[in-house]
Amino acid sequence: MATSANKIKNAKLVLLGDVGTGKSSIVLRFVKGQFVEFQESTIGAAFFSQMLAVNDETVKFEIWDTAGQERYHSLAPMYYRGAAAAIVVYDITNPASFTRAKKWVQELQAQGNANCVMALAGNKADLLESRKVSTEEAKIYAQENGLFFMETSAKTAINVNDMFYEIAKTLLHQAEPSPNPTGMFLSDRPAQRNASSCCS
User: Which residue ranges are recorded for the region named Disordered (predicted)?
Assistant: First the structure.
């Protein structure tokens, strides 16, 4: 139970990825602990919120689940602009969805919030016999691009809550006051190193 002393941090989080990768299923699993076998495609975007306690602090995720269809692509910037975190989802059985995920990452890096915590989720990890994207390939890509990576299964709940928990921890770590109030030095956050180098 949250006490009045508990600090609550609001964090806008957006899910991006191709149609059919399971973005809505991941959100439904995280927010309601449910899985629907035949989830209807999201139209535009759907909004959810969920609180997550991390030690003595609480993160309130304001989650935008965006539609994967190409015709809604132009709406995506409305949702990822100003987002504190983004989960880019692909389907481990569908290589095209992984290619599409990389395009979303590029777009976020170019146009999103420079301090955005980005996670790459290889969903449908329960379908191992149909796997087409190797864990190693995705892991290397994530490391090269400063992304946090997990394989998830909305169906069996593998790693879904863990992923949101890790994002919440990272956001709270980011929010810690700098020991150097003048702001002359960047704190050691390797994932953001390449996001804000002014003179390269």
Answer: 178-200
